[in-house]
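Shipment paperwork, digital attachment
Item: protein structure file
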Amino acid sequence: MNPLGDRLKAVIRRLGESIPFGFGSEWILAVPPRGTQAFTYLTPAEVDASVRPVLLAYTRYDTPFLAGSLLTVDARDYTVKKAVTLRVRNLPAMVLLVLA
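Attachment content:
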């Protein structure tokens, strides 16, 4: 049981959007990176090679998304370049997906 992860899951569901994934749907909260934040997770070559804007998407801590997964956000197809588990007190709180 992860109370903080469950609270953040509810926030993502309230503020985010539902996207199709697999045979169902998943909730994410997608935001554009601030300034050079994309370079924290991607190399300059990966950022330059992306034809669409890079997005950072927050999702639940027990997400099925892995690096290489294909997602459709706002009618655009994205690939998950990285999936980073964000932890608080060594418990998973949410997962940050880097979409390009």
